[in-house]
């Protein structure tokens, strides 16, 4: 790392520390935690709320800790991640499809979202080695905890992107034996069965889930079948756990429509009318869809004590993916392998960790043209052998200068390989990058209920094969014009400054939890993925100028007394995303793809076994859908009002009824991102109209 960068890191942290010291008067010193050294960490491979909270408190930056099993309804990713500051879920079709998960704008340009965040299952990556993922394969109903480390606060050696990491920790043993049945509007129905067992040394849990929906819009049906299981073994200070999962996912893709069409008939698709757009991109005839199956096998081992311990993991996943847009079928068959090892321990006032990570994916990807008249597959115009490999190393230190102050530093070194070979033409594009990802932060805890932090960090993101390999049809009605190419791309790099804090304050004898993070990222060579005039992928490029991502992530939650015998539980999450081009072709414009202001709030009145109350999702201002910020092409602001009722009877029975979009608001849940656009282009994906759902669960 160069001397100027080191000076910038040091000066930024000094200024941040001075600013925090001036802004907040120090209260009574917090007591250092009492640790009995040398003891084993019990059930280290199982979800543990207190342990995960302690891990996140040692991160000098923005984090989230979610307990998904406490949600009234838990079917989609948004059900699990709503009301979380800094975590934005933009639904595509409102079913089992592929929502955009936005954290600090990383990967938001991909259509659909397929990069920018490291997704993990029980501490092991779910992404393929090129960094891509299929987000709709996630199953939040089997997660006991979900932890989010936003931005460069990620702890995994392979997590170096601007978006950070999200870890889904599986329920184990007999923690969740239940049967769940649910259904609702638009032909939605689902069922989940989970059973576990447990004794002193051995435990296991197996879960089966089925979901099906006809969809709100025409041609938007979806279906998912999933199986997940894990078995754990413990003896002394040694633990081992094996994980097995299989997911079969299918959904139709209704494609974007023009704004005027959306407000006239939000359920419609291209093909419902007689315009040239309808004739050229008839969704019924072309049948865009995604069919994906994934089998995953993983194993983790832990041994040691809190003073010195090791964790080792190994995993393999096989994925078959048919991702067909109206013009091109992308057919991928791939295997991903990975190894992860970590050593952690304590030496006096220093906590240290060392980790190594290796990952490889071998994929075959074919590109096939689609016949406009009936959606049949025609010529194969691209046949690729793809190999991605990552080798990462990390060293981290937490130096506790006093019970109130800690200095935290991480340094990651990565080698990323992306080799692509087109079998028909013999053309090859081999790319590799080597980069360091440092972070330096401080934590100041002036009181047991108050924590402040600051950090400065680098992030690096290598492109995935969805950005490198391109396939397009120049004339929608002439599949013979289909062509393929490969893009040589640079790393997306960013320097990020962050300050913030979290803690609690007391109202009427009850703790209210708060958190706030402010960040600014100076981005270079940002990866920009855009779509064609017809809403299909049109390639990726590195933007030629500087860009800036900055924002505020704030949350407030707690319980307040009511005039009667009950209590009010509330959650509020606000995220400001101010992303702009600082130079280059679009200097001064907003970067398309992320809502500038988003507020989610919920208030639930709790009385006995009952909980009920309203919720709000408020997009406060219009959002740009193209980088030119063309007039008339913005996603318009909206507010969605909902209501939930939940009831729990003894320790076994529970049920819920929910209402979403009570006012039947017509709005765009997402959109196609372009460099520029006109209002007549198919841009918007309408969100679901008024919807009701209900469910019943029995725990045994």
Average the pLDDT over all residues and give the rounded result: 91
| Poorly predicted runs of 5 or more residues | 1-36
Spatial gap, N to C terminus: 56 Å
The share of residues in extended strands comes to: over 45%
Can you characterise this structure?
There is one protein chain. It is built from seven helices and 35 strands. It has a 22-stranded antiparallel β-barrel. The protein has a five-stranded mixed beta sheet with strand order 1-6-7-4-5, with helices on one face. A two-stranded antiparallel ribbon has the order 2-3. The longest helix has 21 residues, at 3-23.
Briefly, what is this?
With 700 residues, the chain is mainly β. It is 8% helix and 55% strand. The chain is built from 7 helices and 35 strands.
Key structural traits:
mainly beta; 22-stranded antiparallel beta barrel; 5-stranded mixed beta sheet
Outline the secondary-structure elements.
Layout: H1 3-23, H2 49-57, E1 63-66, H3 77-81, E2 88-90, E3 100-102, E4 118-121, E5 124-125, E6 143-150, E7 164-170, E8 178-184, E9 188-198, E10 202-213, E11 222-235, E12 238-252, H4 259-264, H5 276-280, H6 283-286, E13 289-304, E14 308-324, E15 328-347, E16 350-370, E17 377-400, E18 405-422, E19 428-447, E20 450-461, H7 465-468, E21 469-475, E22 478-486, E23 492-507, E24 510-524, E25 527-531, E26 537-542, E27 547-561, E28 567-581, E29 597-607, E30 610-619, E31 638-649, E32 653-660, E33 668-671, E34 684-686, E35 691-699
Parallel strand pairs: 4-7
Antiparallel strand pairs: 1-6, 2-3, 4-5, 6-7, 8-9, 8-35, 9-10, 10-11, 11-12, 12-13, 13-14, 14-15, 15-16, 16-17, 17-18, 18-19, 19-20, 20-23, 21-22, 23-24, 24-27, 25-26, 27-28, 28-29, 29-30, 30-31, 31-32, 32-35, 33-34
